[in-house]
Please model this.
Amino acid sequence: GAVVSQHPSRVICKSGTSVKIECRSLDFQATTMFWYRQFPKQSLMLMATSNEGSKATYEQGVEKDKFLINHASLTLSTLTVTSAHPEDSSFYICSAIRGLTGYEQYFGPGTRLTVT
Amino acid sequence: GIQVEQSPPDLILQEGANSTLRCNFSDSVNNLQWFHQNPWGQLINLFYIPSGTKQNGRLSATTVATERYSLLYISSSQTTDSGVYFCAVGTGDMRFGAGTRLTVKP
Model:
């Protein structure tokens, strides 16, 4: 069964508004979670690493003030897209390392964001 | 950073055929995973295989870490195998290849 969940699965918002996406690890604790973005027919690109109790680490070119990440507990990380624009429309996927077999990562089902 | 290349980019098979997907990576890795992305976008873990060989039903994978490549074998393909197959490497901040888009025709 799923080990990482995301909510919502899809969201439509108007330009200029903010959207929060939740990522939860189910039945295990994740001190680190990861956020990826995938544009249509493209691969996944890492956006940021979310660390419980500390600031997130962002990949080069990702605006930290636009994509706010909060990892307030060992099972929950949130990504908030602030002042969304149509070009932010994408598929956002989170992941976590379960730790049972080393570094194997499990991915959430993704959130499809459409900004109108 | 580490580069991940997958081949072929597209593959069309007739149901029942076998196929081999390849993943080359530019540096030594502690983690390599193969995923199948279903039509709804969910990444399905196929193999966690930093080295060696594993098999799961009709699928098997081999990673030769010293030569920096991994292979995913699909035997007796079915239409439900269609989708995009990704190889990804890294401990934590994973780097993904561009994927192989597989279409299995009935």
The first strand of chain B starts at residue 4 and ends at 7. Residues 51 and 63 of chain B are 5 Å apart (CA to CA). The mean pLDDT of chain B is 95.
